Amino acid sequence: MTADLVLKNAKIATLDADDRVVEAMACRGAHIIALGSDSEVSAWIGPETTVIDLEGRTAIPGIVDSHCHPDGYAARLACWREVSPANAPNRESLLNIISTAASELPEETWIACYRLNENKSGGYPRLAELDAAASNHPLFILRTDGHLGLANSAAFTALGITKESNDPEFGRFDRDPVTGELTGLVRETAAHLFLERIHGGDTPELIADGLEKVFAEWSALGITTVYNSLTPARAISAYQMLQRQGRLNMRIGIIASGREDGLVESLVATGMQSGFGDDWVRLIGVEWCPDCSTSGRTAAYYEPYVGTPIQGEPVPNTGILLYEADDLKARALAAHKAGLQVMIEGVGDRGIDFALDVLEATLEAHPVEDHRMRVEHCCNVTPAILQRMKRLQVVDSSATGFMYDLGDAYIANRGADQMKYMWPHRSLIDAGVPAPGHSDAMICRAEPFAAIYAMVNRCSDTGGSLDQSEAVTVTEALKAYTILGAYAGREDHIKGTLEVGKLADIAVLDRDVFTIPPALIKGVQVATTILGGSVVFQA
Predict the structure, then answer these.
(1) 223 has which bridge partners?
(2) pLDDT at residue 414 above 80?
């Protein structure tokens, strides 16, 4: 038997239990069949073997992004405008993007924008500014965290919302504290009303077409597996469509959305359990999102937010939670008893404790060994929370992507002294709590090496300090994006390290991330991405 693919003359970091580094690798089909020196692996080379000389480059296991939203990104590629700081560095440029869209679209067509970061784009525009820029078009702008949005007067009218309208449960239409008039800012379930209207026409076909583009982009980042957080039914259909049509160029883990009425209940009724599927599309579990956004000042904390309140924000502000405890406990228990891995989002310390209350009650009612229940994002991990997670053997599904893109907002909204408890990976590793990292893309950028840079250097994109005492090594950060990511989805037996028998999912880097100065990690690029023994990206 000979190999289909051999990589030689390389520095292959297997990230296995011994952190072994080898020169060469042989693959047959989708799997690794040999590792060792160039001379050892050369025995697998036959006349049909593709041999790639990596010329000394470093190779690592393919990146596993264990919590992200490619489906939402895919749906928005077709007709939404991206207004991240790169495209809208100030308020004037944001309003210009809206004005341009208004001039290009038929009258009364919705204008939808996403990835607004008011902290880096000149603050929130006033309602009058939005109305002037959008002309007669209904306008909705989704903040980068996905928890808040801005609507103009035409959008409120389209949904029948006035200043006399009651706030939806677990949401809020912000109002001027003096006049009572709507300010345009909408929070949590109030923002969902606009999202439901705009996304109501999305089809599996539209999402599938967008996903092809998204995954071509993300393959260039060395990502080979994504776990799609809060996956709705139409995205599940899109993934199956891509797989049937041979168009899937990424491994998919589905985390079914507890936000979609009846979806989790339907999975429970079918008897479908976590792990159902194959190496391309697999059901990982189910997720609910009771906590909110620290950068948007809505996540649940015990102590109030610091810094400048947003107009219409409650003062003092300790954030909000989006479920009643007994209701969520019943939902989680039903899913857990049916064999579905349970994930609950928690961001602030009060939000994480709420998530842990749900998970602890679920485990008390139905104990399961090696349950791998997860708290998603899990940002504000105090020492008491860390010990509770260790006792419950809960996975800290850490939003390390927030560190680079949103770190400055965390400092401003919670205070510099609290950064020692935000994403405390040094303490988590030392305590033995599994803590995979994730991007939450496109809430934040998908680039894994930006987050790995922040984990190693403990600073934001501008250099804001996130407390150096919680810094980790490059190897530890990489493991958060490979083996621990796979562990969080119960796939560590087939991916996350480069070992014989595992999938040949590999990222080849343009420089040695293990030896370059830590300040240069954010500039690491991917030269080649290999998925199941086939090259899917070549720089």
Answers:
(1) 63
(2) yes
